[in-house]
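As a warm-up, study this chain.
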Amino acid sequence: MNLFYRKFGENSAKQVIILHGLFGSSDNWVTYGKRLAEKGYEVYIPDQRNHGRSPHSDVFNYYALTEDLFDFMDQHDIENPVIIGHSMGGKVAMMFALENPALVKKLIVVDIAPQSTGPRSVHKKIFAAMRSIDTGKIKSRAEADKLLQEYIHEERIRMFILKNLRRDEKGGFRWAININAIEDNLNFIFDSIKSSSAFTKPSLFIRGGKSDYIRRQDEKIIKELFPNSKIVTIEGASHWVHAEAPDKFFEITYDFLEKP
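Now compare it with the structure written out below.
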């Protein structure tokens, strides 16, 4: 699968791949990617399958997403990168590192644990909200936002979802993500990540202080699968840590990247 991607910087010795989360895209990480590039890194940010501008597929699970990442690295001659993954992207990053430890230099996982948590009510609300909009009839994003408010009260989440609303070739609107495939396979996306072996290279787990995606009881399995890991909490931030505390997030991750 040929994934759409954004690239910033040129430095084959310091390569980074960033994997977005569910309902996200490479757009969510452009500012961070550019900041890393300014520090001398070569940054790749792909849209994962069924998201953004990448191809759609009825197959949507971590085996497929991990295979996509392997193919992406091969296609672009990416060797020994640091992989950063948020939420769903964090689970892809964990699974890839556990299965291909020789291909990964370091790992950064943003606000997700290896365990299964199950779909949350917010995900069901998002699907209901998106399906309630007849994209062929709306005239503006503001109109779409007004319709979303019936299901989603938090403006931050609505703005995040509206990033998936794109103009089509006729000037109308369409959802960029593959709603059917994602909803049909949602349980797979909340599966736990398991492995009989550990990833022993440096790993950093970052959680939001107001988020419960990495709980205290999750720390044991994190240490078992990633024994050379550190867990850092950014207080005051929720699940979207990188967006809500961008400077602190950059400071923590850049320090980790620069350590030998």
